[in-house]
Amino acid sequence: MASRRRTLLKVIILGDSGVGKTSLMNQYVNKKFSNQYKATIGADFLTKEVQFEDRLFTLQIWDTAGQERFQSLGVAFYRGADCCVLVYDVNSMKSFDNLNNWREEFLIQASPSDPDNFPFVLLGNKVDVDGGNSRVVMIDIHFIAFSMNIFSGVDC
Ligand SMILES: Nc1nc2c(ncn2[C@@H]2O[C@H](COP(=O)(O)OP(=O)(O)OP(=O)(O)O)[C@@H](O)[C@H]2O)c(=O)[nH]1
Ligand SMILES: [Mg+2]
């Protein structure tokens, strides 16, 4: 039986505008997907309860704005993060190349106690587009498997 104690884990989703951060969060938490694009303004979070082995966790998942003009709320909410999900669009090399900037900015603002071992999850989205024919980012699957831990079951 699961322990009654819940551990809060703060997860931050970062990546370029339009890569699908909001869609991923809605799919993961509410099992809902919309084709319409509505840019995220600032940041907002949803929570999801998950059980791992005999422990219960509350994931506090922060969805952030990819558009620079909507990042005005600042990055105060980066602080105290337990994990950061870096999202790219597999059909956009630019969105993949920019992840290094997102990662560096995150480490500066969140200033985790052990930056070298901070858990980042790399997530390539939109694999369905054009039946996979538009895909430009190819990464070794072992690298992705190593990076994925929390979001490995987005379609659950
Ligand atoms: N085909 C396809 N479209 C997707 C997928 N994920 C998201 N989209 C679409 O891509 C567009 C952008 O998705 P969002 O989730 O709003 O992107 P975002 O990263 O939150 O964008 P910002 O809020 O501006 O940072 C929307 O029209 C979504 O419907 C996917 O896996 N496949
Ligand atoms: Mg969004």
TrEMBL record:
Pfam families per UniProt: Ras
Topology term for the membrane: Lipid-anchor
Primary site of residence: membrane
Family annotation (SMART domains): RAB, RAS, RHO
MF annotations from Gene Ontology: GTP binding; GTPase activity
InterPro entries in the cross-refs: P-loop_NTPase, Small_GTP-bd, Small_GTPase
Family in the record: Belongs to the small GTPase superfamily. Rab family.
Annotated protein name in UniProt: Ras-related protein Rab7
Record organism: Brachypodium distachyon
Originating gene: LOC100829797
